[in-house]
Amino acid sequence: MKFTIGRFDAATKTVPVTFEADGKMHTRDVNAVLTESGKHDRAATEARVNEVAAGVAHKFALGLLGNSVGEEQA
Hints:
The chain is of the alpha+beta class. It has one helix at about 40-60; strands at about 1-5, 15-20, 25-30, 65-70. It is elongated and about 40 Å long. About 15% of the residues are buried.
């Protein structure tokens, strides 16, 4: 599973993530991890995205998520 994390959105406290595997692609926002002072913790957010990726991979395998790379998502 390959994923690309976009720029942190301070207003929504999320990062856009595009997941790709086996010719399938899915994009969604993932809640960012913040430090106690409210700053974006990039390393912890990447760890969270890794956890989300496991669920996305499972849904890809079941055919519940993922368009072929190059197709628009609904």
